[in-house]
Amino acid sequence: MLSVIPNPPRIGLPIDGSEDLFPVRRVYCVGRNYAAHAREMGHDPDREPPFFFMKPADALQVVTGSEPVPHPYPPRTENYHFEVELVAAIGTGGRDIPVSEALDHVYGYAIGLDMTRRDLQEEAKKLSRPWDLGKAADASAPIGLLHPAARIGHPQRGAITLTVDRAERQRGDLSEMIWSVAEQIAFLSGYFELHPGDLVFTGTPSGVGPVRRGETMEAAIEGLGRIALAVA
């Protein structure tokens, strides 16, 4: 049986130290998972149940190498924000995964950015509408090399930072997550059956803000290196 249109390409993440690829299925993103970021967005950082939104897999922009890669500024916004995040890649799936076993399901970790058309997101919030126009723009999920947990372990702490034109804009520590990676996976698996290839963007520290055309962002997580993007 033939497809009536060309098959869309499957998104694959390059793996550090390997020529193999990690095929991507779904992209889940947690909201307001660092207390200081929750406060800057006008919310109480108490441990309410986490909430999630999704990005399409083809919103990923794979970034490799040390030189900045062009990143397209999306249309219909004048307030385009950066959010640096640790990304966990699911290697084995499951449903109702216990917290104590959740990290066994993680293949590896990467640096990611949850780029956001903040003006569109804020408008959607006011109108009680979905966030898709704000969160799911083309190339709105830059991501670096995937580092296997079998080699680096499971990062529990370490600096997570973002600079714009070398000026630091975000700085936090992975230990400051309100909900740990294991807790996020356990919670998600109660609502969805997780599968190999799923990604979880695990939240951003405080300092989110706009980036403009012509500026260069550099995101870094201790133990995972850095990625750089030049906003086109």
From TrEMBL:
Single Gene Ontology MF annotation: hydrolase activity
Fumarylacetoacetase-like C-terminal domain ranges (all copies): 27-230
Organism superkingdom: Bacteria
Keywords: Hydrolase, Metal-binding
The keyword Amino-acid biosynthesis appears for this protein: no
Protein name: Fumarylpyruvate hydrolase
SUPFAM superfamilies: FAH
Native organism: Methylobacterium jeotgali
Gene3D superfamilies cross-referenced by the UniProt entry: Fumarylacetoacetase-like, C-terminal domain
PANTHER family xrefs: ACYLPYRUVASE (PTHR11820), FLUTATHIONE S-TRANSFERASE (PTHR11820:SF90)
